[in-house]
Amino acid sequence: MQLYDTIIRFMDVNFVYCLVPLLATVIGIEAIFTHRFRTRQVLNLVRWFILCYTVVSLLHYGYVLLASSHHSLQMDRATGPYAFAYWTMFLSATLLPFTLFYKKLAANPWYALFVAVCMKIGWYFERFVIFLTSYQRDYLPNQMGTNWLHFPLVELLLLFLQGFVLAIVFLGIFELIEHIKRMGKGSLQN
Predict the structure, then answer these.
(1) DSSP string of 79-141, one letter each residue
(2) Looking at the domain assignment, is residue 50 inside a domain?
(3) 150 lies in some domain
(4) Which of 1, 57, 65, 175 makes the best surface tag, with the fewest CB within 10 Å?
(5) Which pLDDT score, from 0 to 100, does residue 143 have?
(6) So what's the pLDDT on residue 14?
(7) CA–CA gap between residue 16 and residue 120 (Å, rounded)
(8) What are the phi and psi torsion angles at 35 (to 5°)?
């Protein structure tokens, strides 16, 4: 269980939080520099990241539902008064991304952006379910100190910056691979 939590947390922080800005940056670069960069390969890489994340999170949900001591809590969330939010979260964050296995859908960058937005909506519904069911049962969270990094505007700007940087890094990696391939072909011809 600890390994699943660690993997999911790592993927959340470094990838899923900034998925929408990352895809928007790649789509924007493709629109501005038509076929100049390897945006299709980056989109394919992002698609496989989404699918891997979905499989890991689905395994996590299954483990929590079947083998954990939190079984009754999960069942109460799935069938209780906020079941609509739970099932919206579950469908948009774990089942919708599996549509990226279809090549026609996966080839469309706008559909990948749609799936990313739906995953983000699922993430917000997950927080909604956790917080609201906690308040409903009177499990109040501890009062924490104020940190300027937790203001919504700063978080949004940091997410867009992280997504932009990841898109540029992915494009740079594919450009570097292409450059190395070209250098290898040139040395073979000499």
Answers:
(1) HSTTHHHHHHHHIIIIIGGGGGGSHHHHT-HHHHHHHHHHHHHHHHHHHHHHHHHHHHTT-PP
(2) yes
(3) no
(4) 1
(5) 46
(6) 75
(7) 8
(8) 55, 25
